[in-house]
């Protein structure tokens, strides 16, 4: 079928095919099957609607005259057109084309013509192509239109039988009539026999209770005799724990007394060999006698005299007069010292100037809004000066304002040695601005901004 369709040669005149190009992207494409006039403009009554051009309401771009299309273009339009005589620019064709009653230039197009017409920021690409075939009218299948008389009964019976078999199989799997019969009395009797055959649990071992020995009157006498034995150097015996492995109150008190006696004996042994520093420091290293005398004297602890360091700069030296207040002084002469003076050094500050130039449309508060953005531009520049003190230059902003006064797009063209962070910051500040609704639905405002270091 495809081969047959390709073999059929198209009949009739070619039709116009138009594509709308904005920002390098095709946003709309249409084949004008009916040979009618093609209008463009910001009004929704046009065939192609766009904004941002010199057209105020409507313009007939392709007009049907005597069964053939002609291209109508004005002085504000640019582009190129391929004609039988060759490819020509619209600027060249203005001197050759004739003008109609509305003042537009007219160029007659053939079925081989193609080209591009740019109006503001929108471009229209056109060419003539063969008319697409007419789509056939959708129809219902024959099995639906002929009714029950055309039903395939053989297939229907087979499908119904297969459904019945599958349904019976699934029902058999989920039914309980195939389950084996369980004798509940026999199952309970077997469970009881199994429990009877289990081994008995092991007996619980009972631990004997600990019996604390009664305190006798001899215990205080024995405790008083133990410190005397420890001081004389005789060995003592640790009381044995009770039968249960724990110490009772009397044994715990006796063990504490023995530990205290051992500590006192150790201190007495260390004190009997002379000053403690004599056994640690060798003779001649440090005059340990003076340290021992100072430690034994009561004059080692008390309120000292006032720490008086007199005047004079430089480093602090033992035995010489010098005040702490004169350490920061840079003078070498004696006398009253003076501290240094700290001076805070601030970085460079930037100055920003901006002006307003309305390129297209009319905005009533353009100058006021741009003046309000100057403080934000200055903050962006001062932040950049902290990183690069030599940053300076200018940025030219092109702000496109929408119908409600909102900023639709901002184009920044920097010059000089401004870092990219300044361009990004300034562009973001301009994007957040809000203008009054422009006359005509849109406007373009050019804002040159200069950045100078003070």
List the defining traits of the structure above.
454 residues; flat; alpha+beta; six-stranded mixed β-sheet
CATH fold name of the domain at 4-129: Tumour Suppressor Smad4
Name the strands of the widest sheet in spatial order: 2-1-12-11-7-8
Question: Hey, roughly how much beta strand do the residues contain?
Answer: 15-25%
The CATH class assignment of the domain at 4-129 is Mainly Beta
The biggest beta sheet is recorded as: 6 strands, antiparallel
Number of discrete helical segments: 10
Overall description:
With 454 residues, this protein is an alpha+beta fold. Among the domains are: 4-129, Tumour Suppressor Smad4; 350-453, 2-Layer Sandwich (TolA/TonB C-terminal domain), CATH 3.30.2420. It contains 10 helices and 17 strands. The strands form 3 sheets. Strands 2-1-12-11-7-8 form a 6-stranded antiparallel beta sheet. The chain has a 6-stranded mixed beta sheet with strand order 4-3-5-6-10-9, with no helix packed on it. Strands 13, 14, 15, 16 and 17 form a 5-stranded antiparallel beta sheet that branches. A hairpin with a 5-residue loop joins strand 9 and strand 10. Helix 6 (218-231) packs parallel to helix 7 (249-271) and helix 9 (366-387) runs antiparallel to helix 10 (420-431). The longest helix has 23 residues, at 249-271. Residues 230-239, 276-286 and 300-340 have low confidence and may be disordered.
């Amino acid at each position: 079928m495809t081969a047959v369709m390709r073999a059929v040669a198209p009949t009739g005149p070619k039709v116009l095919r138009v594509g709308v190009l904005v920002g390098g992207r095709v946003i709309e494409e249409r084949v004008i099957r009916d040979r009618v006039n093609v209008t463009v403009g910001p009004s929704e009554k046009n065939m192609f609607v766009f904004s941002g051009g010199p057209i105020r309401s409507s313009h007939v771009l392709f007009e049907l005259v005597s069964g053939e299309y002609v291209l109508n273009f004005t002085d504000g339009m640019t582009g190129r057109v391929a004609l039988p005589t060759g490819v020509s620019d619209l600027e060249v064709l203005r001197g050759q084309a004739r003008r109609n009653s509305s003042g537009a230039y007219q160029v007659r197009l053939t079925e081989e013509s193609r080209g591009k017409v740019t109006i503001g920021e929108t471009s229209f690409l056109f060419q003539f192509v063969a008319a697409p075939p007419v789509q056939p009218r959708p129809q219902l299948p024959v099995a639906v239109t002929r009714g029950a008389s055309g039903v395939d009964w053989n297939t229907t019976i087979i499908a119904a039988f297969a459904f019945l078999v599958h349904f019976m199989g699934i029902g058999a799997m989920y039914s309980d009539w195939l389950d084996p019969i369980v004798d509940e009395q026999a199952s309970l009797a077997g469970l009881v026999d199994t429990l009877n055959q289990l081994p008995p649990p092991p007996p619980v071992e009972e631990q004997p209770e600990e019996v604390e020995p009664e305190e006798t009157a001899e215990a205080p006498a024995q405790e008083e005799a133990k410190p005397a034995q420890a001081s004389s150097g005789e060995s003592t015996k640790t009381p044995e724990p009770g039968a249960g492995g724990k110490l009772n109150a009397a044994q715990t008190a006796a063990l504490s007394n023995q530990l205290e006696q051992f500590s006192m004996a150790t201190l007495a042994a260390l004190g009997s060999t002379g000053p403690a520093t004599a056994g640690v420091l060798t003779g001649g290293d440090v005059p340990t006698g003076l340290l021992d005398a100072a430690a034994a004297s009561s004059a080692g602890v008390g309120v000292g005299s006032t720490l008086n360091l007199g005047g004079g700069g430089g480093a602090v030296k033992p035995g010489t007069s010098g005040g702490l207040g004169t350490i920061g002084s840079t003078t070498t002469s004696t006398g009253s010292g003076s501290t240094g003076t700290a001076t805070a050094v601030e970085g460079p500050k930037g100055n920003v100037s901006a002006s307003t130039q309305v390129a297209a449309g009319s905005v009533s508060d353009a100058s006021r809004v741009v003046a309000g953005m100057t403080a934000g531009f200055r903050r962006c520049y001062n932040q950049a000066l902290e990183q690069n003190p030599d940053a300076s230059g200018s940025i030219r902003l092109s702000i496109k304002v929408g119908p409600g006064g909102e900023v639709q797009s901002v184009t920044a063209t920097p010059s000089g040695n401004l870092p990219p962070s300044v361009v990004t910051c300034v562009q973001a500040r301009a994007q957040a601005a809000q203008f009054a609704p422009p006359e005509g639905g849109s406007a373009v405002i050019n804002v040159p901004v200069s950045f100078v270091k003070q």
